[in-house]
Each structure stands twice: as structure tokens, then as C-alpha cells.
Amino acid sequence: MRAPDAGLSVFPAVPDDVRVVDLAWNEIGEVPGWVGGLTSLEELRLDGNGLRALPDLSGLTALRVLHLDGNRLTDFPECPPHLETLFLYGNRIPALPDRLPATLRHLAVGGNGLTEVPGSLWKLTGLESLNLAENTLTEIPAAVGGLTRLRMLDLGHNRLTEIPPEIGDLRLTDYLYLSDNLFTEVPEAIGRLDRLAYLNLTDNRLTRLPDTIGAMAALVELRLYNNRLESLPESVGGLARLRELHLQGNRLTRLPASIAGLGELRVLDLRNNHLRALPDAMPPGLTHLDLRNNRLRELPESLAELPALDKLDLRWNKLDGDPGVLGRLAARGCVVLR
User: Fold this and answer.
1) What are 130-153's pLDDT values in tens digits?
2) Start-to-end Cα distance in the chain
3) Core-most of 11, 186, 220, 315, by most CB within 10 Å?
4) pTM as predicted
5) Residues 6 or more apart from 104 whose CB is under 8 A from it?
């Protein structure tokens, strides 16, 4: 039974042996009690309805996947024992139970206003993805390091003040969101995340990065905007796979010469910093370079030698004269804004 976004206001009749029910993004306000008897049901999707409560689902022994994002639930659902995926993002659940299904692989409980999570959460060693974003958490314990199968972790938009060093014990591969918290520093241990592709530390209070960040060899995208960084470590040049580097809204006065070693870098966003000069050499594969609202007076001639540069944004700088490098870039088709 698949009827997402079908304008339904009532839970439809389904066969007793149904295996998948997808009724996401309808206007169903109530789930009838007989749903708890669908013993063949393996997947239930009810995202984006107006649900305020659910019947007891603990008897659905075949259920492995339960999606309930974007409802109005105030109580944690009674879950079956072998559940593997549970999505509850954007509800109104104030607390998690002490007991969660030990078989969980994917858990999303962001956007619920949680102030804390039970210690039992950190014992779910089968978790592969965990989303705790948009809550009011103030602490993540060292026990997070025990989630050794975790590939994706989202702790963004909380009130966390410290990143536990044990985060370096994780085997994250896909992403780590730490944005919009109260972090003032990043532990050296973050360099051990050498399989991680995406790191987001935006909207914090960072003044420096550890040298070990250059050991994050698999990073493809690094977002650090809206912090208080005044410089970058030379080790950043070791991020050989990096394709996007976002540094908007910091206090950078210079870039390390090693930045030229970022051979795969395509996008470099340096808006709203305090840069007075650029290094003589820049990453050779750049396609977009955003330098808006800095303090640049001159540009290195080497910019004209960047063969892939499609857009160079220099607005709200005060360049001396009319640098010839800009004419050469424009002549070969690069969009230059100043």
C-alpha cells in the first residue's frame, strides 16, 4: 500500500498480510488500533501527518522500519523488539525512554526539544546513523565513542559547549554536523576521522583549528563559516580530496601558503573576512572564488593562471587601480564581479 501525498484524511483499509504501508504527507489524524495487529508489516511510513498519538505497535514483530517525522507526537511510540529504523524528527517528544530497541541501526529524534538523552542510547552499538539535531542538549558524554558502527552523526543546533575527544574513536564516513552550538575549540582527536567526507562546524565560537585537521584525508567538504577564526593551520594543505571550503564570516587576515596544495578544491568561499592579501599561488582547480567584503588592495598575477576559474567575486573590496589580472580573466570568459 503506497499512497504518499494523496490527500487522505482517514487511514485506509489494508490487507492483513500487507508488508509495506506508505501514507506519508497526508492529513491522517489518527491511526486505528487494528494497525497494531498487522503482523506481516515490515515498513510503516506516516511522516508529515497530524498524528498526536499512536496505538501500541510493540506486537508488530516483523516491523523493521518506522517513519514518523513531522507529526505532533508527545509520547515515544511503543516499538516492536526488532525495529532497525526509527525516524521521529520534528515531533514534540520531551524525553526518550530508558529502553530502546537494541536492534536499531538508524535513529532520528532531532527537533523534539530534548534536554538530555538516556545513557542507554550510547549502548546501541549497532547504530549506523544518529540524528539529535535541533534539541537543547548541553552535553555529549565520552560514551559516544562506543558507537563504532556509526557512519553519520548530526548534533547541530543544540547548546553543546564541548566536543568530546572520544568522537575521534568513531568510524564516521558520510557526515558529521556540529553546527550552531557553543564550541570554542575542536579537539586534536578529530584528526582521527580520516574516513569522513563532510564536516560542518559552522556558527560556533571557534578561534582556531587543531593542526590535526590536515589528517582528515577523506574530507570532500568543510564548512567553517560564522566562527571567529583568525588563521588556518598550514596542515589544511593536506586535505588532498577537498572540493569545497567555506570560510565566510570569520576574522581571517591571511591564508597559509599550503592552500595551493588543495589540488581538488573547486569552491573557496572567503566572504566577510579581514584578508589584506592572497598567497602567490592558489588551488589550481578552483572554479569559484568568493572574496567579497575583505580588505584587499591588490591581487596576485597568478590568479590569471587558474585555468578552471569561472567566477571571481571581489565586490566590497577597495582594489588599487584596475589590476591587469582581472582583464585577462574576463577575456577568457571568467565572470569577474567587483
Assistant:
1) 999 999 999 999 999 999 999 999
2) 56
3) 186
4) 0.96
5) 83, 84, 85, 86, 124, 126, 127
- Residue identified by cell 526518550 is 96
| DSSP designation for 168 | G
Say how many residues make up the chain.
338
What is the pLDDT, as a whole number, of residue 221? 98
Q: Which three cell numbers stand for residue 199?
A: 564536516
- Give the separation between CA 262 and CA 182, rounded to whole angstroms: 29
Cα(317)–Cα(302) distance, rounded to whole angstroms?
Answer: 19
C-alpha–C-alpha distance, residues 312 and 257, integer Å: 20
Other CB atoms within 10 A of residue 176 CB: 26
Q: Which residues contact 199 (CB under 8 A, 6 or more apart)?
A: 175, 176, 178, 193, 216, 219, 221, 222, 223
The grid coordinates listed for 31 are 491511526
pLDDT digits (tens, 9 = 90+) for 225-252: 999 999 999 999 999 999 999 999 999 9
By DSSP bridging, strand 65-67 and strand 43-45 are parallel
**Helix or strand (DSSP H, E) at 45:** strand 43-45
Long-range interactions of 199-207: CB distance < 8 A, separation 24+: 199/175, 199/223, 200/156, 200/175, 200/176, 201/227, 202/226, 202/227, 202/246, 203/179, 203/227, 204/178, 204/179, 204/180
Asked if residues 220 and 197 have their Cβ atoms less than 8 Å apart, the reply is yes
Beta strand residue intervals within 144-253, DSSP E? 152-154, 175-177, 198-200, 221-223, 244-246
Residue 128 CA to residue 142 CA, distance in Å, equals 18
What are the Cα distances from residue 307, in Å, to 92, 244, 245, 266, 326?
Answer: 52, 17, 19, 12, 14
DSSP-assigned letters across all residues of 253-322 = ----GGGGG-TT--EEE--SS------SS--TT-SEEE--SS--S---GGGGG-TT--EEE-TT---SS-
